[in-house]
Amino acid sequence: MTAKHERAPGLRVWAAAACALGTIVASAPASASYAHNTTFAELKARPHTAKPDARLRYGDQASQFVELWLPKGRGPHPVVIMIHGGCWIEKVAGLNLQDFVSEDLRAHGVAVWNVEYRRLGEPGAGYPGTFEDVAKAVDLLGADAAKYHLKLERVVAVGHSAGGHLGLWAAARPKLPKSSPLWRAHPQRIDAVVAIGQLGDLHDDPEVTANACGADTIAKLVGPPTASHPDVYADTSPDLMEPFAARQILMHGSVDDLAPPKAGELYRDSAEKHGGKVEFIVIPNANHFDLITPGTDAWSRIRAVILDQLKSG
User: Fold this and answer.
1) Closest CA to 150 of 71, 83, 95, 56
2) What is the value of pTM for the model shown?
């Protein structure tokens, strides 16, 4: 049974922290052993002491690039495709939100393909641009893997929040029909997705997504129905693209008010209704930002799952 969660005005939490590093603290259960939760302000204020090893462009727009974090040694290195969150909105967050976990994975011998993409507020964002950017960034991995000594035998995508949706969608791309503007021949295979505090079900969870990102965000992301694209969710909401081959592991924090466990339950139930198979894990006492903060118990658990998935055959 899932505990009830009080809802915070989520987009205001994201946006206020993005504009000014104020203090935002998630509600905590009354427990003497309960640890302090990481706020967005605290995560953003962490010093960026490490840098990626390369930046690769897949287009001419400002946000069309990938940053590569390479472990020491000659390789070949296992690789994770990292996709950041931030409500699909340019002003909320960029790929540097994932610098800290990228640095941590690099220290554990994993190469990280950290994806930037056009978000709402940027020219060309929404449908199909945001999705096309993620697809191009993911496919660029195959083109450059040999140059950077990356192993593609088992590729794991890791996405946080809105990036969890995009990671699941990227893994589902082989199911796209040729009639979709997003269809491409021979998309990069993704073997597993670790979706962290994800908002992957675009059509069945308007209350959850509106709380996190604003009532009109999904409508702006998928665009209006048209004669050629009457069902705006059919090629954008990964639960409707089930079943697809990648293993799907959803990991949510029990006190996450932005993407609560209910979001995982909604995605799992919809995915399974459409023939998919989803694993769902709730991490006790973790909020939305604990999940991507090295040094927290939540991130240690998530990292262990990622490393295990890279080893799985």
Assistant:
1) 71
2) 0.90
Q: Which of 89, 104, 87, 86 is nearest to 44 (CA)?
A: 86
- Beta-carbon contacts of 300 under 8 Å, excluding residues fewer than 6 positions away, are none
Question: Residues in the chain with pLDDT < 50?
Answer: 1-9, 12-13, 15-34
> Which pLDDT value is given to residue 104?
98
Q: How far is CA 22 from the centre of its chain?
A: 24
Quick check: 139 and 184 in contact, CB under 8 A?
yes
Question: Residue 96 contacts by C-beta under 8 Å, 6 or more apart in sequence?
Answer: 48
Please tell me the distance from the alpha carbon of residue 111 to that of residue 71, in angstroms, as a whole number. 6
* Burial of 51 per CB tally in 10 Å (0-12, 13-18, 19+): exposed
Burial degree of 92 (CB within 10 A; 0-12, 13-18, 19+): buried
CA distances to 37, 110, 176, 190 from 294, rounded to whole Å, are 12, 15, 35, 25
Cα distance between residue 38 and residue 116, in whole Å: 23
Q: How far is CA 131 from CA 30, 35, 63, 88, 234, in A?
A: 41, 37, 13, 11, 13
pLDDT value at residue 209: 84
Q: Which amino acid is at 275?
A: G
Residues in the chain: 313
Is-cis flag, bond preceding 243, omega within 30?
yes
Residue corresponding to tokens 């462009």: 57
Determine if residue 223 is left, alpha or beta; phi over 0 gives left, psi from -120 to 50 gives alpha, anything else beta: left
Count CA atoms within 13 Å of residue 225 on its CB side: 5
| Contact predicate 40/17, CB 8 Å | yes
